[in-house]
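Incident review: delayed structure delivery

Summary: a single-chain prediction request sat in the queue longer than the usual turnaround. Root cause was a stuck worker, restarted by the on-call engineer. No data loss occurred. The affected request and its eventual output are reproduced below so the record is complete for anyone auditing the incident later.

Affected input:
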Amino acid sequence: MPDVELRIVTDAGARLANLLAGDLDLVEQVPYEGVARVEQDERFHIIRGVSSRVVFFSLDTFRDVTPFISGKDGKPLDRNPLKDLRVRQALSMAIDRSAIVERLMQGNAIVASQFLPAGAPGTSAAIKPVPFDAAKATALLAEAGYPDGFRLTIHGPNDRIVNDSKIVQAVAQMFSRIGLEVSVEVMPWSVYADKADAHEFSVNLDSWGVNTGETSNPMTALVATQNPDAGMGIANSGRYSNPDLDAKLAVAKRTLDDTKREMMLSELSDIVFNDVALIPLHHEVLVVAARKDLQFTTRADQYTLAMNAKIV
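Output delivered after worker restart:
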């Protein structure tokens, strides 16, 4: 292959314009509204590939009183609703993931049920995508002691995850259908990341790229009890903690037999997602546009490497 020049073009519209003008041969992260233009131009083609990045909501299951949930009268609640499994299940059921994938992501994502797409190492065959069921979600809230709902603020970045602010707004509307009074606050990642690390939120949008291709990596980072000295729970912004999970994860991580290790990680996936430690939404799909004579193989880790391109 000839020499490769890598250009950083941060503006999505400019990337697409440069491709169509012939100044670039291949671009990643094609803006969804530009996909049709590329497909209609015989000089180019669109290449898609499912990534290992999962987009999800973190939940504050640690504090007895969480800062961004209150009664509808604005007064603090006497307990944190997110510590109740029924409330976490209700929030998950209230989300129409298929609508997010089809409308907001324009088909450039797949619904997520766990850390990696079905069949990947460490996933559980028993865990399926949570079906949208507003009526059942409302009933679960009532069963948990919140028949009239509560007031909630959802936080998210507005420049980090594909369509992040739109996702937060859409989910806020979905939560309102089960009786919650929801507001949204989004901010630049440079501000958001520090606040998430400081556990300032109650419910917040996040994502994780599972670059190892198996589930011990996100379990260690996202749902293991926080222990920075041991490298555990480093991105566990909701501070979820489950001693049984921690103990079994430690055993799985030191198990060298691949078959046994995968079975252990699959069991851990059951624990994590049956307990709604976090709420998975979707896995991003990488959208690449290239000259017709360029073949490109996408990577699950979303890296764009010259060695994955080939002139035909």
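Verification: Residues 258-274 form the longest helix (17 residues).
Action items: add queue-age alerting; document worker restart procedure.
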